[in-house]
């Protein structure tokens, strides 16, 4: 069950389910006990109440004697619909005027305008899927790369939920035995095998930690990688940005200090979204505007998930390069890729100085030489070996899920500590209940109205 006492869903809701604005077609969706009857009252065509579900019907929508539009009505009868209620979808012409007139007509007849995410919320409350799957619906709508789509589809089809339910199910049996011990507390009996419980907890803890480790990769897949291109003036940062984007996004000039502000744009590389940020050249300057650009660059560098430090092969030696990268003051763990530019004009000795340097890629940004190697190096930095297991492993992409997993890990650790120190059954049972509650919050087996409101208001209206 999703909620101990699901709210009564006695009203019928309506919303535009396609993006607002003029288009060829707009789809308005109704869901609820009166969805078919309300549509029947405005539809001139077949009597919908007499038609089977999963059928299409052509006719007109009328407001009294006035024809609003010619439409196609899609009919879905409960429980064989997205929300598990009676659902009607009206496909009309995509005029804002027509859409608003149809919405006004149905709200006058008794339908209520749907809240954000209310159709998916009703599907959850009716048991069509659990909360983790419901959240994956929003992720699927927002997916803008192959990998984000793949992960969202896997979660929407229940891959993550099945793994969590298995974890939780293995713990519930031991929790029940501990609770039974509490009922017979005065008789000093043990129903739960402590040795077996330790083994189980260690296995579950290992699985929870693996899921938590996957969140770093999942966050990259879902939100992309903020990648700052930093370096001295005239290193070729703007030229590199343009080459990666395949367009003249940034102004390129031989005059040092041309870039004064941050220029950002996105590109997908092998399914991972990178948000590249072109920055002002790093140098000491008396120019007030350029100084502001340098200050902004340093702030953005410190916020980056990955830094591409671009340097001119012809004017930089390895010792200088190392000093410049250290001067960035990056936090431990932030990857830096050193990229030597102007490969086409460098001499052999200049190239030899960097060819053997680990973590360095050599390119000629103006000609596009070495860009494939640069992209592969970027991918390797952000994904390691994680994406190679994407087809068979669960990837956590949701911050709420990660926080619940962290809470579960803490509670499981408390149980293990209690077992090692001989803690009483009451304390062990309480910590185990906390672990079960944290895992249950992810799928909605344990939830509250406030939690559901927080989640579903992030959806678009009409979904």
Describe the model.
The chain has 463 residues and is an alpha/beta fold. It is built from 15 helices and 13 strands. The protein has helices spanning 35-42, 96-108, 118-125, 131-142, 146-156, 159-183, 194-223, 237-245, 288-303, 318-326, 348-355, 371-383, 399-421, 425-443, 449-456; strands at 13-16, 23-31, 43-44, 55-63, 66-76, 87-94, 112-113, 225-231, 263-269, 272-278, 306-312, 336-341, 360-362. The strands form two sheets. The chain has a seven-stranded mixed sheet. A hairpin with a 2-residue loop joins strand 4 (55-63) and strand 5. Helix 4 packs antiparallel against helix 5. The longest helix is centred in the middle third of the chain and has 30 residues, at 194-223. The chain is flat and about 85 Å long. The two termini are 22 Å apart. Mean pLDDT is 82; it is low at 1-8 and 250-260.
Q: Into which percentage range does the β-strand content fall?
A: 15-25%
Which word captures the global form?
A: flat
Number of helices: 15
Q: What is the residue-mean pLDDT, rounded to a whole number?
A: 82
Largest sheet: 7 strands, mixed
Binding site for Mg(2+): 238, 259
Keywords: Cytoplasm, GTP-binding, Hydrolase, Magnesium, Metal-binding, Nucleotide-binding, Potassium, tRNA processing
Binding site for K(+): 234, 253, 255, 258
EC number: 3.6.-.-
């Amino acid at each position: 069950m999703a909620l101990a006492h699901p709210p009564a869903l006695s009203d019928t809701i309506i919303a535009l389910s396609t993006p607002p604005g003029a288009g060829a077609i707009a789809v308005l969706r109704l869901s609820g006990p009166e969805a078919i009857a309300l549509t029947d009252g405005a539809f001139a065509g077949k009597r919908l109440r007499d038609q089977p579900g999963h059928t299409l019907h052509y006719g007109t929508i009328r407001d009294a004697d006035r024809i609003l539009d010619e439409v196609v009505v899609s009919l879905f009868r409960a429980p064989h619909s997205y929300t598990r209620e009676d659902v009607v979808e009206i496909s009309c012409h995509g005029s804002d005027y027509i859409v608003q007139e149809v919405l006004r007509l149905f709200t006058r007849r008794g339908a209520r305008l749907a809240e954000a995410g209310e159709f998916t919320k009703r599907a959850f409350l009716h048991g069509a899927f659990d909360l983790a799957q419901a959240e994956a619906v929003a992720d699927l709508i927002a997916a803008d790369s192959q990998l984000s789509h793949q992960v969202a589809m896997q979660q929407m089809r229940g891959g993550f939920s099945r793994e969590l339910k298995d974890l939780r199910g293995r713990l519930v049996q031991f929790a029940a035995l501990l609770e039974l011990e509490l009922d017979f507390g005065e008789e000093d009996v043990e129903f739960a095998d402590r040795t077996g419980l330790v083994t189980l907890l260690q296995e579950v803890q290992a699985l929870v930690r693996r899921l938590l480790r996957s969140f770093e990769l999942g966050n990259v897949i879902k939100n992309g990688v903020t990648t700052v291109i930093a370096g001295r003036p005239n290193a070729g940062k703007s030229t590199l940005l343009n080459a990666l984007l395949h367009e003249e996004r940034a102004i390129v000039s031989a005059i040092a200090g041309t870039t004064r502000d941050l220029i950002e744009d996105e590109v997908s590389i092998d399914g991972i979204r990178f948000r590249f940020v072109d920055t002002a050249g790093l140098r000491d300057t008396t120019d007030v505007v350029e100084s502001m650009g340098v200050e902004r660059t340093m702030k953005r560098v410190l916020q980056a998930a990955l830094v591409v430090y671009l340097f001119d092969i012809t004017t930089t030696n390895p010792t200088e390069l190392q000093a410049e990268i250290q001067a960035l003051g990056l936090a431990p763990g932030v990857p830096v890729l050193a990229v030597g530019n102007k490969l086409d004009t460098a001499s052999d000795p200049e190239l030899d100085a960097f060819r053997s340097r680990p973590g360095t890629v050599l390119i000629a940004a103006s000609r596009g030489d070495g860009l494939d190697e640069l992209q592969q190096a970027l991918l390797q930095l952000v994904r390691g070996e994680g994406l190679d297991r994407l087809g068979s492993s669960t990837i956590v992409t949701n911050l709420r899920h990660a926080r619940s997993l962290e809470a579960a890990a803490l509670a499981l650790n408390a149980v293990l500590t209690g077992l090692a120190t001989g803690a009483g059954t009451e304390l062990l049972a309480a910590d185990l209940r906390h672990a079960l509650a944290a895992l249950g919050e992810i799928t909605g087996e344990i939830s509250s109205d406030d939690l559901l409101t927080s989640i579903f208001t992030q959806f678009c209206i009409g979904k």
